[in-house]
Amino acid sequence: MSDDLKLPDCLSLLSEETMGALRRIEWQARKRKQGTLTGRHSSPDKGASVEFAEHREYAPGDDTRNLDWRVMAKSDRNVIRQYIEETNLRATLAVDLSGSMGYQGDQAELSKVDYAKQLAAALAYIFVKQGDGAGLVIFDSSVKTFLRSGSRPSQVRQILEVLYPAEAGSDTDLGGVLHEVAERIPRRGLVVLVSDLFDEPDKIVEALHHFDYRQHELVVFHLLAEEELTFPFKKFQRFKDLEGVEEMLRIDPQAVRAAYLERLRVFVKRIESACGKMRADYVAVNTKTPVRDTLLEYFGGRR
User: What is the 3-state secondary structure (H, E, C) of the chain?
Assistant: First the structure.
């Protein structure tokens, strides 16, 4: 293939195989959304759709076709039937690029950050292909890019162009950044967080509650590598903190394995429990699982 016909590098984040597997998948919102177009998701706004909401008193200028004649006959009141209007979804994909996301391990083909980029690309494709909007936030200790939600086909390409060169950066301030993101999203919608969640659990939970307070639907994809989940190391190893501490630490894995796995279990349970109380989806992801399979399993369970 000549250079003139070579496909842009950013398209490698969204392979034909992945698009083929996800082509028939559709996202149905669980909470009512605010949007600008007629679509498939329930809106808090009242209109003239198929789902009845409530009655209100008739006012001059109202369409008389919406009068509820049965109520008028029984109560002698002139009332209008109001309905829940359907709307398009506005999704914001929040992708963590902190230093710890650069970890890959030996059993995964992708680092956590590369996995997150492909996952976000696939979700953007799903949303836009069904006529909904997708936006993107990438961050480490601060917001690096904030791309507002859009529904044009070109929006997927724009998201890919932002994601493709992104690399794992500096320390994290997940809790603080998520508070900022929650305030910057202009309307209630869907927020998809893709992160390894390496921060103090209380800070994370508080930030997730901020999205719930703003009436967003929330989905958390919690990315961890196989080695982070099982801590399989046996011999003395040198470990390096990918955020903050620069020196290498020489540790006997067998001496700390039990304590590490217990702390991980408590941490995961804390986040998962908080998501459950907010009716948010918590999705545990092992990065050795292909992105396509992770999404197919998630959408299968969501139905």
Answer: CCHHHCCCHHHHHCCHHHHHHHCCCCCCCCCCCCCCCCCCEEEEEEECCCEEEEEEECCCCCCHHHECHHHHHHHCCCEEEEEEEEECCEEEEEEECCHHHHCCCCCCCCCHHHHHHHHHHHHHHHHHHCCCEEEEEEECCCEEEEEEEECCCHHHHHHHHHHCCCCCCCCCCHHHHHHHHHHHCCCCCEEEEEECCCCCHHHHHHHHHHHHHCCCEEEEEEEECHHHHHCCCCCCEEEECCCCCCCEEEECHHHHHHHHHHHHHHHHHHHHHHHHHCCCEEEEEECCCCHHHHHHHHHHHHC
pLDDT tens digits, one per residue of 251-301 = 777 888 899 999 999 999 999 999 999 999 999 999 999 999 999 999 988
> What are residue 286's DSSP bridge partners?
224
Residues near 282 by beta carbon (within 8 Å), at least 6 away in sequence: 220, 222, 271, 272, 275, 276
Tens of pLDDT, residue by residue over 17-47, are 888 888 888 887 665 544 444 445 444 444 4
